[in-house]
User: What shape does this take?
Amino acid sequence: MKKMFGKLISAALSAISAVSVMTAVPAFADDLPSPDNELYDGAFTYEVVDGTYTIVSCDAVIVTSIPASRNGIAVTAIGDGAFANCSAVTSLELPTSIRSIGDNAFYNCTALKELTLPKNLQHIGAHAFMGCSALESIEIPASITEVPDFAFSMCDQLKSVTLPDTLTSIGQCAFYACASIEEFKLPASLKTIGDYAMQEWYSITDIDTSGNSSFIVEDGMLMNKAKTSVYRGLVDITGDVYIPDTVTTVKGGAFSGCMKIVNLFLPESLTVIGGDGFSYCASLRTVNFSQGLSVIENTAFFNDTALAAISLPSTLTSIGDLAFSCCSSLERAILPEGIKTIGNGAFLACDKLTRVSVPKSIETVGDQAFGVTAEGDERKKLDGFEMSVFSGSAAHKYAKKNDIPFTVVDHSLKKMAFLVIAIGLILAAIVFAVVLMTRGKKSPDHSVKKAQKEAEQKAEEDAYESIIDKD
Assistant: This one.
């Protein structure tokens, strides 16, 4: 099964230079050996840049330190990929002369457990410490203003992160899959957090924003001050979760791994659910998709194994790749007129979803979007699956191409089916209004929203057979 974050990780890995396996050679020589090999000292290869040395590769069996100078010339930089895939580094304190760490510099140094960055460091490159799976703590010096894309992604054991108050930006995927982080303090100066920066934080229970003026934590959710974007949910957020009415975007990976969410209520203000927004939410049973939602990005609800039914809003235009893939309990999916794109594998391995009606508005149906199951890496047609499609539509072509049983539905019948459910939802809205007036409140509280949702679900269930009935 495709990993939920595959495309971004592939993009990151493609940027990493190939580095040969480390060879057994003597440790530091006292001086550069000869004019013919003047940039090699038996442990490192150097390059002169602007009158100082940059380490471009490491060839030592064991690395415990990096020299501050060679032959009176300062060593000021660690080049791109210089230590990539090096298993010789376990504990390292960089000299104060180092000003720059290049892209992929320590990529996949899986034995690196302890690291001290110099206080005058000016630059950390993208993917610099990606895959340092043994690294337990990191303190970013005050001279750094940005943690770049993928800088500490997939550092599985990273638990303690100290960020300076000079930091203004955390890049995309900067701390992706740092599953051991339990507490995280946002520095005072932080202004931006990239997508997926906090994805797969399976241990995060506290995010401290007390010294920051740009972000807040409310009801277990890290949001910007205006509460228009949600960046991260705490993993102990439990039961019914109500996204605030001001939120327009759930950022990529925001609730990934929040395994205690049961019922999710989305506001009408929400337009975009980012990639992996609610992936791996193992207890998520129901989602209230409110009108206004436009885009569900790739793997947004990937592997939500308790999700039983979805009714998507008519404002939705796009469902991304693998958006509902591996939702093994999904039995009912209502796709309204208005959707234009269904991505590759959108409903792949939803083995209980045996019937689906695809509206005429859909222009693109991706590969393996419907009626395909997975057995390990193998894909095969799902037994008993059938589709209701419009003649000549993209779904009709998809069904014929993939030899999936289908029924061509009459246009007027389909309109009637959607009219049935529309009437049901109107009745649900009336129930909602009555409850609200009874409570005498100007705005709905959570219990009223829940009552409305329950009424809507009942209406959807009553109308579902009409939507997927054969001609």
Summary: The mean pLDDT is 86. The chain has four helices and 35 strands.
